[in-house]
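[job 0412] stage=fold_complex status=start
inputs:
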Amino acid sequence: MTKIFMEGSEVMAKTVILCRPDVISAYPITPQTHIVENLAKLVADGKLKSKFMEVESEFSAISSVAGACAAGSRTFTASSSQGLALMHEVLFASAGLRLPLVMVVANRALSAPINIWNDQQDSISERDSGWIQLYVETVQEAADTLIQAYKIAEDKRVLLPVMVCMDGFILTHTMEPVDLPEEKEVKQFLPNYKPTHAILDSENPMTIGPFTYPEPYFKLRKELSTAVDNSKKIISEVNEEFGRKFKRKYGDGLIEEYKNDKDVAIVSMGSVVGTIKEVVDSRKDVGLIKIRCYRPFPKEELIKALKDRKTVIVIEKNVALGLGSGSVLPEIRSVLYSLDKRPKLVGFIAGLGGTDIRIKDIEKAVDDSKKMKDGEAEWLI
Amino acid sequence: MKKSGDKFEPGGVIKEPGSSKEVKTGSWRVFKPIVTENCKGCGICVQFCPEGCIKVKNGKATIDYDYCKGCLICMNECPVKAIKSER
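[job 0412] stage=fold_complex status=done
writing structure:
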């Protein structure tokens, strides 16, 4: 392996080369721009054999890769914020069609007011689309997760699209030393895509995306739901296999526990987990659980990790308007509901629109949680 | 796709061609196009029919009413006004 010191976006572009997609289509949007800018250059310079489709919007970008994938190609796209929101319709369609797309989301706040900086409102708003969502902590994890994402998506037991969610600017625009795997090794881990259920073949014509009556629709949505739930097993397996081959893995692939043997546990996802680890190291009275896989939601894993805690603090970079908290807090609450003895659960909405979450903010959250009532959420500002 | 069933390909992909024949859409029709004596069998209506349910048989356009939805594009396009409609 070669250790390189490189900007997050460039690392992602280099990792895309390792994954060898046939078709790339994307529309530039801050903070995703550097990823596709690098890819367009690599294709133009002949260093990447993929077909790069230049389009006029994110709706066309996701439609192009969905079409290419339905024809039997491995594809790549990336977006952020309003761009991801513009893809909304096709996100549901591509999951429903069981197309193994892979997309990098450079997480950014949604308008209005308009803002280019990081929070996770964009991808969390797409949580019910049927896409697997993996949130990463570091650039290294982003690169490793992208390789894993193709293997998960294309597994015959999964056949679902995967979003690799990396915090905009904090990860995409930060220089970090990264171990980039060798091309040969990635090829062994991730062989070429062999489509079976959807392929453009004039000898064996097929109809993709047909109109369905109520009963088949209902059954196919149930099958989709089961597929998303069942993908948990494969996400863990792929993480393990990656660990064996490349000597790096991320918890059990779904969650990652860090010194989770204290009375208090913080639950969070994305790059802020790195800051929280600093607090966990210095305070000694709090542990950490990182949610790596947000969809499918790791219910059983979270129950196991949280059942013996006295207080659980959820720190999240999104707000479910009308609910008075973020989206993750009520989901963890529903997961813990089955326990006879439930920990006190509080939440913090933090870091919206790129607001820094500093060590002292995390300290404040831990201190404030003592005065808060069970189920309460506050704004960490 | 069939109205009911238990076996589906992932994503509802249909691998057997011709499944659209199973759903007879003729019942959707309000206006019924009728080919009159004036038909010259030129086949322009065959090209325009969005359902693909017109064929020229024995020199005359013949409409398959099992699938004709009654859009009347054939009537509109007929160069000799050989197609009329009735409710």
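[job 0412] summary: Chain A has two domains: 2-246, 257-380.
[job 0412] exit 0
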